Amino acid sequence: MVRIQTLACVALLFIAGACFPTTEGAKPKKERTKISVDDPNVLAAKTFAQKELRKLCDYCNDELRDTYQNMEVKTIRTAEAKPTSLSDGTMFFLRMTLESTIPYQGKSTDSQTVIVFQNADGTYNGISVERSPFLDQ
């Protein structure tokens, strides 16, 4: 019985090794690189992000939808870039201040980091936000 258990453990270790190979020979993780907020790629990513952010609330209540549709990127405070992990694209990390001419519950500005995903061919395919702008949740 002990021999069967030992063989079973050895077999599991072999399978685990095949399913979860070591990172030997893997590409090193690339770190974020600071770039100028005036860089043309950052400005293009900002424009894309603003268009996408305005769409986030197309189906919200009227007050919140109006706030989002009148939102614009007031400033980019910092910008960083990093290659994407699974493709040849780039992720832009933009720390920005957003402003809307129509406040939501008294709030007309918000700051957060928006990640913009750029494909290798220069087109953009999406954004990621920390939380919904102008909402504290």
Overview of the structural elements:
Strand 2 (71-83) and strand 3 (90-104) form a beta hairpin. 18% of the residues are buried. The protein has helices spanning 2-19, 40-55, 62-69; strands at 33-35, 71-83, 90-104, 107-118, 124-129. It has 137 residues and is α+β, with helices and mostly antiparallel strands. Strands 1-2-3-4-5 form a 5-stranded antiparallel β-sheet. The chain is elongated, with a radius of gyration of 22 Å. It contains 3 helices and 5 strands.
Brief summary of the model shown:
The protein is α+β, with helices and mostly antiparallel strands and 137 residues long. The protein has helices spanning 2-19, 40-55, 62-69, and strands spanning 33-35, 71-83, 90-104, 107-118, 124-129.
Largest β sheet strand count, sense and barrel closure: 5 strands, antiparallel
User: Order of helices and strands, N to C?
Assistant: HEHHEEEE
Radius of gyration: 22 Å
Q: pLDDT below 50 for ≥5 consecutive residues: which ranges?
A: 5-22
Structural class: alpha+beta
Q: Count of helical segments? A: 3
Secondary-structure map:
Layout: H1 2-19, E1 33-35, H2 40-55, H3 62-69, E2 71-83, E3 90-104, E4 107-118, E5 124-129
Antiparallel strand pairs: 1-2, 2-3, 3-4, 4-5
Notable features of this structure?
137 residues; alpha+beta; five-stranded antiparallel β-sheet; 3 helices
